[in-house]
Design brief:
By secondary structure, the protein is of the alpha+beta class. It is built from 15 helices and 13 strands. The strands form three sheets. Strands 5-6-1-7-8 form a five-stranded mixed β-sheet. Strands 9, 10, 11, 12 and 13 form a five-stranded antiparallel β-sheet that branches. Strands 3-2-4 form a three-stranded mixed β-sheet. It comes from Pseudoalteromonas haloplanktis. Keywords: DNA damage, DNA repair, SOS mutagenesis, SOS response.
Amino acid sequence: MYALVDAVAFYASAEKVFNPALRTKPVVVLTNNDGCICAVCPIARRLNIPKFQPYFKVKHLLAKHNVVICSSNYELYADLSDKMMNIISRFCDNQYVYSIDESFLHFNGFTPLINDWHQYGQLIRRTVWRETKLPVGVGFGPTPTLAKAANHAAKKLSGFNGVAVIDNEQSRTTILAAMDVGDVWGVGRRLTKKLKLLNINSALDLAQQSPSHIKRLFSVVLARTVDELNGRPTLNWHDVQHNKREVFSTRSFANRLTCPIALKTALVSHAMIVARKLRAQHCVTKRLLLFIASSPHEQHYAKKSLIYELPTPSADSTIFANAVTAIFEQLYQVGVRYYKCGVGALEVSAAQFQQHDLFNQKTDNIKLMSCLDAVNKRYGADTLTLASQQQTNQWHMKRTFLSPHYTTRWHHLPKIACC
């Protein structure tokens, strides 16, 4: 049996954890630079607050309904996500963290101990709420795709109280018939349009197709989805847990930048993030992509990218920072109002399977990087940084409605007044 545990409007729910006054109010969270709405809590959803709309377009609507507006507090969300995943892991044999707010569970040895999947799902929900104050939905199914469908039913379809179980033919057909084909895991917008042209409108319609026919028309991936919707597991649990082939860190600026020092500082910071992500999945890269660009709405749009070849595969932050310094002059153009920049690691590979080069000795300082990661994990992000990251903060994004970093900064700890 598989399960998918998914937080309800995670970003918006996270804003309510340490501020109980918000729990009965409509809350929305904005994207980078307070650009668009990216999360809408259930209370705000009932007010028909649109998601993924530019903030300036719905500003008056939000004010009319007294909606609480929050900037994205990624440090808080990451810490709460880590706590939530650790709690969920206690309820299964094997866990795969699919995203910041979603986690697949696999039950094997636990199965004989579970008499009622509905009750077990409610136990997971109560435990997560008690220890983190985050609301979650739980879906159970004999395949990961059916578990995802059950989770959709638990959160979106009427008649379910946060938990849905697909464990027989009746529950499978009932839930799939009520799901739009576009809500099936792995079916995107373009594929949805093509399927609906063939009169495949619901998840049940897709499940009733011949896998071989779907494979000929579309792909082997969608054919496997058909098998999974019929209760035949085709996704190997370990195949799903693959490392990323490419790792990127990009961000737009709060204001246009013309200062080379600010731009270089931003690129170094992104390089640090990429290096940290590579170390987290025990990988290295030999090629770095760096780019800087102005806004496409500017009269003279400018964008330039360069690939830097490292002497040996690496995940060392200092080596990445030196790479930025080495090619920055080739990237930067005087007079351009820069809007965005980023760094990407291409052709990512596992660190343990590297063949050493006799003529290019590896210069990674593994112990230093381990110490850097350990300190930042214990005391909060950017507790330790490279000096080149701290030259200026002009490039930092705009977060006007940012909530405190309750769990990662000492001076933001909640204070209790005892009368």
